[in-house]
């Protein structure tokens, strides 16, 4: 297992025994890397094992960022050497699959950039709600010659259809909350001042109902809508393979030179900067 980061990157706010807020807090950009994995696994395990929790809302404490891309500073071996999770999948796809299958209703409250892993967490959640002004969703990986690895090809295509999924994944463009709602990428998008109240009211209402009944409804919906693990696993293999290719190594190095993972403007406009590498 990856070395545990000393600083907590996830905080669990138990609004009640049945309603938890999972607050992502890894400033300045909410990157996701090998040191994030043990902490995220602990969160997922808690959701799976707690007998009372019914609803979990994923949200961010970092202004401008929900959850962003994978951390490219640690060597690739820091990720590839990690043992598989309980599903038999590598850690990140394992945890995303488990969120989808857990007997807990998961809600992504998206304020800020949901880029790469952030989009993958949103897609793995049962519901997604976004800020009109503040949410930006994207899969920028094409700009760095990378294949996304956390299951977005299979999940996004099921959610918004083949054409729109290909548009998102092949252009690397970002979409704001209102367009994400039109595409079906998120359930609904709200003026930023209304987002918290709506999600809290919905989560509180769902948490008031019977846990066994909620779990049964989710189980049956899952049977009709969730991709099989056999579809998710190859995406991670494709991601790892793409990281090692010369084109990806070149583009990642160029982005790092521009300020990736250090410069606020680069992280805030990552889709734009990734696109400039090919001009």
From TrEMBL:
It comes from the Bacteria. CDD domains: crotonase-like. InterPro entries: ClpP/crotonase-like_dom_sf, Enoyl-CoA_hydra/iso. One of its GO terms (molecular function) is catalytic activity. This is Enoyl-CoA hydratase/isomerase family protein. The lineage of its organism: Bacteria, Pseudomonadati, Pseudomonadota, Betaproteobacteria, Burkholderiales.
């Amino acid at each position: 297992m990856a070395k545990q980061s000393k600083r907590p990157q996830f905080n669990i706010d138990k609004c009640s025994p049945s309603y938890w807020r999972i607050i992502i807090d890894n400033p300045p950009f909410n990157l996701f890397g090998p040191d994030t994995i043990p902490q995220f696994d602990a969160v997922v395990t808690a959701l799976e094992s707690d007998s009372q929790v019914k609803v979990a809302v994923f949200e961010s404490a970092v202004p401008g960022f929900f959850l962003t891309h994978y951390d490219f500073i640690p060597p690739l071996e820091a990720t590839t050497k990690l043992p598989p999770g309980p599903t038999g999948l590598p850690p990140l796809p394992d945890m995303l699959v488990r969120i989808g299958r857990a007997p807990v209703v998961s809600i992504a409250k998206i304020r800020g950039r949901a880029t790469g892993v952030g989009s993958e967490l949103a897609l793995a959640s049962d519901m997604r709600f976004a800020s009109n002004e503040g949410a930006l969703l994207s899969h920028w990986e094409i700009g760095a010659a990378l294949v996304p690895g956390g299951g977005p090809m299979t999940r996004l295509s099921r959610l918004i259809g083949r054409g729109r999924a290909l548009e998102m994944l092949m252009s690397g463009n970002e979409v704001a909350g209102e367009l994400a709602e039109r595409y079906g990428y998120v359930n609904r998008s709200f003026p930023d001042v209304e987002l918290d109240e709506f999600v809290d009211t919905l989560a509180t209402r769902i948490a008031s109902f019977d846990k066994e009944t909620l779990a049964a409804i989710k189980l049956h919906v899952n049977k009709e809508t969730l991709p099989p693990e056999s579809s998710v696993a190859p995406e991670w293999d494709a991601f790892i393979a793409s990281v090692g290719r010369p084109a990806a190594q070149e583009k990642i190095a160029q982005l790092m030179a521009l300020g990736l993972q250090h410069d606020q403007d680069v992280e805030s406009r990552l889709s734009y900067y990734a696109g400039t590498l090919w001009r």
